[in-house]
Amino acid sequence: MKNLFDVYPLYDITPVKAFGSKVFDESGREYLDFYGGHGVISIGHSHPNYVKAVSDQVSKIGFYSNSIQNPIQTGLAEKLCAFSGYPDYSLFLCNSGAEANENALKLASFHTKKSKVIAFKKAFHGRTSAAVASTDNPSIVAPINAHKVIFLELNDQKSVLDELQKGDVACVIIEGIQGVGGLDEATTEFFQFLSSETKKYGVVLILDEIQSGYGRSGKFFAHQHHDIKPDIISVAKGMGNGFPIGGILISPEFKASHGLLGTTFGGNHLACAAALSVLEVIESENLIQNVNEVSDYFKQQASEIPQIKNVKGRGLMLGLEFDFEIANLRKSLIYDFGIFTGNASQKNLLRILPPLSITKAEVDFFFVGLKKAIGKIVEPQISVP
Ligand SMILES: Cc1ncc(COP(=O)(O)O)c(C=O)c1O
């Protein structure tokens, strides 16, 4: 530990293997994964098709730079664009969510020759320079990340219009559903307003689907619930089911030129084999349909728990709102009941991001644990005379 730069608060748990929605620690204890390591696990841990695809690929060729023909990369681009409903868009591949947004913001700036970004309150877009500057958390923005970004309230049409009219805006960046910020989502009216007004003012609309994409919301992309077509869509997390890969889907309005964007590792053979296998499993196992079915079941179960005041989000990107801070509840769920969940910047919100393959039986198990954990955390407080 002494040689690691200590930036992460850690739970005292050491996972050594995982399968489906289950994670096992070094003592053999089993955990149910309702968080997927920040919403990364899409098709389930160590899915056999995925393990085979990655193993077969690494035994042939794992990497070569972007200077040769790579049919796995072109195959992934074709499959992703078609399956997501964007067959005429093109794909640029990189290695993480932040990098995807960084490239999206950069491309918007190249395209418009402008530099101002409109982002939204409580947004999280990653930690690279322009991405972190577009993130509404000053404590993680360094002086070197000096970009022109303005943060507006979600759904505030007038403020957006005032900014667009100034003529210096390159792009608007918005999450399909806010993740880290606490599962808030713009209204359909606001998404449609952004879509039409950005077009009118020649401004690029970037949809950050890094967390909300890849089927998690119950459609391939969360913005598809609102019937809009953004100019650039950023993806990562569920795309590789744990293998680091990210990318941007780019509308045909943008002209590519050699050297405009680039990366050494992005789009390598191994990453593309992993990402291709993820899409194949999402399709063959009808995981988006499963998201919708299990989501309804989950919400129905949640509605029977009086301490849950509200359920935010869509599909299997959900936030359970309590009228108390959830830090101890989350700890009890992990240590006492073997269930991983997540938190958000909204302190009374428990974040739920299970694999898209989660079953109703696993949801039952979750709620048994949750009820017991609530009893442990809340009832002792209520019963104090
Ligand atoms: C919406 C959103 N955008 C961007 C990112 C950054 O992704 P990464 O951590 O892969 O850089 C995240 C990560 O949580 C995210 O939730």
TrEMBL record:
GO terms for molecular function: identical protein binding; pyridoxal phosphate binding; transaminase activity. The keyword Iron does not apply. The keyword Transferase applies. Belongs to the class-III pyridoxal-phosphate-dependent aminotransferase family. This is Aspartate aminotransferase family protein. It comes from Flavobacterium agri. InterPro entries: Aminotrans_3, Aminotrans_3_PPA_site, Class-III_PLP-dep_AT, PyrdxlP-dep_Trfase, PyrdxlP-dep_Trfase_major, PyrdxlP-dep_Trfase_small. SUPFAM superfamilies: PLP-dependent transferases. Keywords: Aminotransferase, Pyridoxal phosphate, Transferase. PROSITE patterns: AA_TRANSFER_CLASS_3 (PS00600). It comes from the Bacteria. Its cofactor is pyridoxal 5'-phosphate.
